[in-house]
Amino acid sequence: MTTPLIFIDGDQGTTGLQIHQRLHERADLQLVTLAAPYRKDPQRRADAINACDIAILCLPDDAARDAVASISNPAVRVIDASSAHRIHPDWTYGFAQMSPQQAQHIASARRVSNPGCYPTGAVGLLRPLLEAGLLPRDYPVSIHAVSGYSGGGRVAVEQYEGETASQASAFQLYGLGLMHKHVPEIQLHSGLAQRPMFVPAYGAFRQGIVLSIPLELRLLAPGTDAMRIQTCLEQHYADADHVQVMSMGDAKQLLALDPQMLNGTDDMKLMVFENGNQLLLAAVFDNLGKGAAGAAVQNLDLMLAMV
C-alpha cells in the first residue's frame, strides 16, 4: 500500500504549526506543505490539494472555502480546521466522542470539519444531557469560557508575546455583541432549540481553556439531580478516548480550576459541581490540543484507517 500523502494548507498559523510538528516525523504518511513564495499562489495550492490523499486546511474561513472549491479530484478527502463548514449539512462534524457512531462517521467521511475550541467543551457537556432528556432543549443556556490568548491566532500571540506585550491586558471579555461565530455551531451540535448565551474571554496565558455552564435544577426535567447529570456524562464517555469525567468526590475537593491543567495533552476533563438547587458544569482542555490540532490529528488517524 502506498504511503498516504497529507497536505497541510496553512502550516504557519497556530493550529497548522502544531499539526505540522505532530506529523512531520511520522513514517506512516508523507507530509506536503507549500514553500513560502507559493503559499498564496492559487494554482500551486490547487495542484497540491488535488494531488494529495487528505488535505488539512488551517486557513481563514474564506480561504478554506476557496481551497475546497478548487478540488477537482474526487478522491481527495479534507479536514477543515476553520469554521467555514462546521454547520454545513454535507460535512461531518469532527468531534469523535460526540456520539458512539461519530468516530465511524469521521473515518468514512470525505469532508470533515474540525470542531471549534469552545464548542468542543460546550457540546461535550450539553449533548449527552439533551439526548438523555435531562436538560430541556429550550433551556436558557449560558456559557462562559476563558481561553489562552493563542486562541486568537497569530495576531493575539503577537499582542502578548511581541514588542508591546507589557501593554497586553491580563484579562479581556470579548464577543460583547453576542454574535460569536461559535454560537450556531454550539446550538446545532449540542441539540439546543435556541441560541445559547455565550460569553468568551482571553487570559494572559498562552493556551488552555476552562468553560463553565450554570444550571438550575428547578428548570430541568423532573427528578433530575446532580447525580443523574454525573451518571449521564460518565455513561456517555465510559469508552471514549481523550474525554474523562471527574468523579464528584474529586470535584468536591477542588477549590479552583486551572485552565492550563491539561496543556500539552489531547484530553478533555468534564466536571459537575453542586450546591443545593444549583449545578455548575465545567470542562478543561488545551485549546491547541483537544480544541484544535489534537482533534485534527485524531480525525486524520480515523480517516487514514480507511485509506
TrEMBL record:
Enzyme Commission number, as recorded: 1.2.1.38
Recorded GO CC terms: cytoplasm
Active site: C117
Annotated InterPro entries: AGPR, AGPR_AS, AGPR_dimerisation_dom, AGPR_type-2, NAD(P)-bd_dom_sf, Semialdehyde_DH_NAD-bd
Top-level enzyme category: oxidoreductase
SMART domains in the cross-refs: Semialdhyde_dh
UniProt subcellular location: Cytoplasm
Keywords: Amino-acid biosynthesis, Arginine biosynthesis, Cytoplasm, NADP, Oxidoreductase
Pathway in which this enzyme or protein is active: Amino-acid biosynthesis; L-arginine biosynthesis; N(2)-acetyl-L-ornithine from L-glutamate: step 3/4
Domain Semialdehyde dehydrogenase NAD-binding residues, every copy: 5-106
Function according to Swiss-Prot or TrEMBL: Catalyzes the NADPH-dependent reduction of N-acetyl-5-glutamyl phosphate to yield N-acetyl-L-glutamate 5-semialdehyde.
HAMAP family in the record: ArgC_type2
Protein name: N-acetyl-gamma-glutamyl-phosphate reductase
Lineage: Bacteria, Pseudomonadati, Pseudomonadota, Gammaproteobacteria, Pseudomonadales
